[in-house]
Amino acid sequence: MEVLGATPTRNLALELARVTEAAAMMAGRFMGRGDKEGADQAAVNAMRLILSTVDMSGVIVIGEGEKDRAPMLYNGEKVGNGSKPDVDVAVDPIDGTRPLAYGRSNSLATVALAPRGTMFDPGPFLYMNKIAVGPEAHGKINIEKSITENLNAIAKAKGKTVEDLTTIVLDRPRHDDMIAEIRKAGARIRQIPDGDVAAALMTAMPDSGVDVLIGIGGTPEGVLAACALRAMGGEIQGKLFARDDDELRRGREAGYDFDKVLTMSDLVSSEDVFFAATGITDGELLKGVRYYGNRITTDTLVVRGLTGTVRQINATHTVDKLDNLSSVHY
Fold first, then answer.
1. Average pLDDT along the chain
2. Number of H-type helices and E-type strands within the chain
3. Which of 211, 233, 259, 313 is most buried when burial is the number of CB atoms within 10 A of its CB?
4. Distance from C-alpha of 147 to C-alpha of 264, rounded to nearest angstrom
5. Relative orientation angle of helices 36-51 and 12-27, to the nearest 10 degrees
6. Average pLDDT over residues 167-181
7. What is the pTM of this model?
8. Is the backbone peptide bond immediately before 71 cis, with ω within 30 degrees of 0?
């Protein structure tokens, strides 16, 4: 990648829009059909096909898992056509497979790029405690402080009372104590079944009605969200979360520090990041895929870190022309 201050790097985010659009169009066919595996495989097939055409030499850092469990888009897989630049790649072909499978909201196809060696690699440790906010509360959060202290700081930064704030939390038993504290502090709560990439991004969207994401979710999703929030002016902090003593022991033996606060710079250390997300099902962030016989429409968020540019792309795709060019059928 070119150094900051030189000629701006090529805007790969626009290439990524093609990647997430393809994944969303394939996965959207599975909405409500109860087939999480089929939907995920369709999204992976489409995403991998389009990634292979992008002018880059990419390595999957955040992917579908280890090679023996994920034949495509596995951690360590090389993607792109092999030309420069050298990049780390994070993919989540479907953020929210369960909402998609059961026809619920806020399912996305997402992908992010950053210069080689700048993305945090969580290895096999899939969970982290995190807090994410939009631009107005940037620099005001501290994951080592209590939820109440953070809510007070966020409210002050946004010129609100705590009672005005809306928190978004994954609906999991592990969050019962957190939810009790949020309620005691007086903030409103939205509990969601899945999809904390979308939830983190909503904190940076003024019209979403969401002020802060709190709770334990996916580490891969945290890295993806960090790539977007760097450009959108928001902030995310996290700490790796061990599900049991054995995982904690294995993590420490592998050199992971479960007490370390992972700042946005730890999760992705370069400003030269690119992020794209396409709606699969309808949500507050993006509209879902629409099918009209020979036409498909998509709604995509495209973010470039160096310029802080956030684009929303509403696209119409012609099915028979795509089928003439592609090995997958949309």
1. 91
2. 10, 13
3. 211
4. 19
5. 150
6. 96
7. 0.91
8. no
